[in-house]
From TrEMBL:
The lineage of its organism: Bacteria, Bacillati, Bacillota, Bacilli, Bacillales. It comes from the Bacteria. Keywords: Glycosidase, Hydrolase. Residues 4-297 form the Inosine/uridine-preferring nucleoside hydrolase domain. GO terms for molecular function: purine nucleosidase activity. InterPro entries: Inosine/uridine_hydrolase_dom, IUNH, Ribo_hydro-like. Its EC number is 3.2.2.1. This is Purine nucleosidase. PANTHER family: INOSINE-URIDINE PREFERRING NUCLEOSIDE HYDROLASE, URIDINE NUCLEOSIDASE. The keyword Glycoprotein does not apply. It is an enzyme of class 3 (hydrolase).
Amino acid sequence: MKPIILDVDTGVDDALAIAYAVHSPELSLIGVTTCFGNIPVADASRNSLAVLEVLGADVPVIQGAAETLVRGEKSRYSRHVHGENGIGNVELAQPIKSILPEMHAVDYLIEQIYKIPHELTIVAVGPLTNIALAIQKDANIIPLIKEIIIMGGAVNVPGNVTPYGEANIVADPEAAAIVFSSGANVILVGLDVTLQTLLPRAEIKEWQQSNEQATALLGKMTDFYIGAYEQLYPGIGGCALHDPLAIGVAINSSFVTTERMDITVVTEGEKTGQTIGVPSPSATVQVCVTVDHVAFVQHFLERIS
Ligand code: BDR
Ligand code: CA
């Protein structure tokens, strides 16, 4: 079993990624760290706790960054895509557990990396603020992280929140720049591949009718998310499985093919958040360039439904 920490801004597709990880015996989800992003960080923590409880998973949630490295608090959250509460306006029971008290996600990440050197996979599916802060606090962790699988960026395709930038990178471009240039072993799962992984509405109908409470609730959340996708991309007929694909890559890297690239993040002007990739065989960032979307979506569905 591969030990992973999932860094999230929960979010409907983050919730799906949590469920996919919990249902995958190849992975051992040792902790969930939270960041602002789709919603404020306190809401991301509450949603993560509530989703884990619905799934019956006993995994600690550790709260992290409330704002960007240098730009202050995010000016606008993604409630139009993920709902007012971040999880498609589905009301989950108030979580019984609370976030790990008196510990910040950054310190938790550093502690866990030292606990199992060279073994820990970090799957980061929100802004990269927590990871950048951990690297800034203790650069000695960099070679001790097995890999950081990141949902973020748009290297050879347009962005989704601007014509150039993808949401997680635009949310904190300076943090992303620190992580990509750190020398850490990074796998970048960007819009280049995630926009090909469409979950059709028909599948969600089945989930909503499921006797399993967790599946039915995930179905309701995803129904809202698909509605948002249909408004943003008329005729698309589904939603992109952005964050679940990062978990898919952690389970089975052959879902994708990659190319090593040096990645620069634009931090000024209208292209802020753009990820520019220059192929280089010695680069530490592997950019996902193709995906077997049929095999991945099928695998995801088998694990969730
Ligand atoms: C990413 O942005 C967020 O809205 C999603 O949860 C995903 O992590 C997609 O661009
Ligand atoms: Ca996310």
